[in-house]
Specification:
Largest sheet: 9 strands, mixed
Strand content: 25-35%
Structural class: alpha/beta
Helix content: 10-25%
Shape: globular
Distance between the termini: 13 Å
Order of helices and strands: EEEEHHEHEHEEEEEEEEEE
Radius of gyration: 16 Å
Number of helices: 4
Number of strands: 16
């Protein structure tokens, strides 16, 4: 099982990475969804006992992906934050950016991004449905009845799948003819089970990729 798989999507070569990211070589753009920075802080503030270190862990993974791909753009397809602003989260994010000073970061706002202040995080806020090449970049999947065309890349659903012979479920990319759903990048998220045997997917399992697509 490789850690990177390249697939032709809408006529473009996309690289699917086992650490829950997609790289678009022709744009030199790394794409993730559902980063949910600060989720643990929000839950602890609500009195829910959860481990610390989730934000640092996710940003360390993102740092590696940026170094490996040498991306000059990073697009986050929604839910950059999990909730309220946090000075600690903003400091950690800016420390990551300082290590990648040539990377331009853009965010498609998600349903958890109501507190997002782009200038405080040095990111650009994109429209909720932005086109580039053959693609449409969104947080939510294609709306029912949508006939606008374009291959949608999105997040929001946090898809997970069961792998034969392995316990639990694993984050997965879900691939349809006109839409690709990215798994949640944050390691501290739940997931929507994909049980349809006809559905095409690529699972992210312990640093490797496996699937039926």
């Amino acid at each position: 099982m490789p850690g990177v798989i390249e697939r032709d999507v809408a006529g473009e070569a996309l690289q699917f990475h086992a650490d829950r990211a997609v790289f678009w070589p022709s744009r030199n753009r790394l794409m993730i969804a559902d980063l949910h920075l600060g989720k643990g802080d929000v839950m602890r503030a609500a009195g829910i006992s959860v481990p610390t270190g989730g934000t640092a862990h996710d940003l360390a993974r993102l740092d590696i992906l940026l170094r490996v791909t040498r991306a000059t753009e990073l697009w986050v397809l929604g839910d950059f934050l999990h909730g309220r602003r946090s000075a600690a989260v903003e400091r950690a994010w800016r420390a990551l950016l300082a290590s990648h000073s040539t990377v331009v970061v853009s965010v498609v706002g998600g349903n958890h991004d109501r507190a997002l202040v782009p200038d405080a995080l040095d990111v650009a806020l994109l429209p909720e449905d932005v086109r580039d090449g053959p693609f449409r970049f969104r947080h939510h999947p294609r709306p029912a009845g949508d006939e606008a065309g374009g291959h949608v890349l999105c997040g929001h659903l946090h898809p997970v799948v069961k792998l034969p012979g392995l316990p639990g479920r694993y984050p997965a990319f879900v691939l349809d003819a006109d839409e690709t759903v990215l798994p949640a990048f944050s390691a501290f998220t739940g997931g929507m089970r994909i049980d349809d045997p006809a559905q095409r997917w690529i699972a992210c399992a312990k640093g490797m990729l496996a699937g039926n697509a």
